[in-house]
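so my prof wants the structure for this chain in the tokens format not the other one, which i didnt know existed until like an hour ago. anyway here's the sequence
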Amino acid sequence: MVIDIFDFYGSTRELSDLFVRLRNEGYRVYVNLSTGNRIITSAALLSCFMTGSHPYYVRPERYSIPSNQEVLSIGVSSVVEIPSVRIIGPNPHGQELLRTLGTMGGMVRHESALVQPLERVRGFFPEKKDAESKRAYLARKRAHLSRVIKSLENEGYVHLSKKGRFVGVSLTDSGRLYSGT
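here's what i got, hopefully its the right format
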């Protein structure tokens, strides 16, 4: 795994994927936030919150600054567990839409391009009513899709671009974090 220490979103994605993979293998994940630059430390903390991992901070006994070198920490004074905060994120339908959009390259030119792939996701669309026509059912599915997309836009996970009567949908950086791409 290679992490660009100046790319907050990319680092958060990589670390989140690593933490989830380790958790799925049966490990409890503890993350020491006392070293690293601010971007990586922030990305690691957010990844902990997103994945249920355990952040902590090691307080050194003292610091040493040799001439013309970086600051060195010496010894361990104490270990401080950082309280975990639950990151809620998008609702389950929103998460499915973000994952689907991520697999489609992170953007679609027309919102309706999402209908067919999301039909494969069990429970995403409401069930067809007995006496409902195909046309009415398609209209209800599109209305449901529009509500989910609008909610994701309001929460900052997707960006909408209107071109004529069509609406394009693309992931924001936050949306990419939850899309898994």
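also thought this was worth mentioning. The two ends are 15 Å apart (CA to CA).
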